[in-house]
Amino acid sequence: CLPEGHLGQLTNLANVVWERINMRGPKNQPYVGKAAFAHKGGIHVSAIQRNANTYEHVAPETVGNVRRVLVSELAGRSNIQAKLLNRYPQLADNQLIAAILEEIQDKENAGYTYEAADASFDLVVRRHVSAYQPAFRLRHFRVHGIGTEGDQVDLVESTVKLAVDDQERLCAAEGNGPVDALAGALWAALEPSYPELADLQLADYKVRVVDSADGTAARVRVLIDFLYDGRRFGTVGVHENIIEASWLALVDGIDYTVNTVREASASVP
Fold first, then answer.
1. pLDDT at residue 150, as a whole number
2. Which of 66, 86, 232, 234 is the most buried (most CB within 10 A)?
3. One domain for residues 46 and 158
4. Which one is predicted more confidently, 173 or 83?
């Protein structure tokens, strides 16, 4: 049998195995999957808040996993509030909670969804509780080189100008598409100040049309999955311009990583 305390490493072990064999572990994998302790239905979440044993036969932390309360356009107010208190148990200000709920619901009405974008959700909360500091200030970005004649595949070029550490930086990069090029330019500009970004990887990229009735002018929702330090997290961006939506999701991934690393460093004595 396992020595006492080792069972708490089960989820980390599973993640290492999936990474070594270059596969993505199923979300619904018992005990160690991302959705193994996920809760979505309003009544379901309400019961968990009162007595976790009603839907969880073991505590998630005993196997190194965490409880997740999913937030979507179908989720009720109780789901959002439960997720807030699960992440920030110190939140006791009802007015503050109400302000966060209002922003989340406004964003959902605009096409955002946070069910698969836990990092973007966390940043919304951080901005309200003064636990957020932007990694940089954008001056402008450009993407060009899209659309060439013939069958030749040319790289897309991106230029980003931003301010970080009171310094202006202008960086350019090439990529296999606009998102790849934007990410390359961003990383080049920010890695000197945030070396942790060298370990931040884009793992998945998805695009959804928010309202197809608007045709080519419809808003699009971009969802990006990132990998950092063995963890997978998601961000979301919504805009009529797919490149702008991608930019928003990219920046959330960077901001989330930088802020969580700062938080972890500050907690180390």
1. 60
2. 234
3. no
4. 173
User: What does the pLDDT look like over 204-259, one tens digit per residue?
Assistant: 999 998 877 767 678 899 999 999 988 889 999 999 999 999 999 999 999 999 99
| One domain, residues 107 and 164 | no
Confidence of residue 124 (pLDDT cuts 50, 70, 90): very high
Assign 139 to helix, strand or coil.
strand
SS3 content of the chain, % helix, strand, coil (to 5): 45, 20, 35
Question: In the structure encoding, which two tokens stand for residue 50, read together?
Answer: 């009162």
Q: From residue 35, how far is each of 105, 126, 170, 227 by CA, in Å?
A: 23, 24, 41, 17
Same domain? 36 vs 108: yes
Whole-model pTM? 0.72
What would the two tokens of residue 231 be? 């963890």
Mark whether 90 and 15 lie in a shared domain: yes
What's the burial of 116, exposed, middle or buried (CB within 10 Å: 0-12/13-18/19+)?
A: buried
Q: Which one of 76, 97, 128 terminates a domain?
A: 128
Beta bridge partners of 68: 38
Residues 121 and 158 in one domain: no
Other beta carbons within 10 angstroms of residue 222's beta carbon come to 24
Structure confidence at residue 74 (pLDDT): 46
Tell me whether residue 236 is in a domain.
no
Q: Are residues 111 and 163 in the same domain?
A: no
Question: Best-predicted range by mean pLDDT among 77-81, 102-106, 115-119, 171-175?
Answer: 171-175
| Total domains present in the chain | 2
> Do 13 and 108 sit in the same domain of this protein?
yes
Beta pairing partners, 172: 159
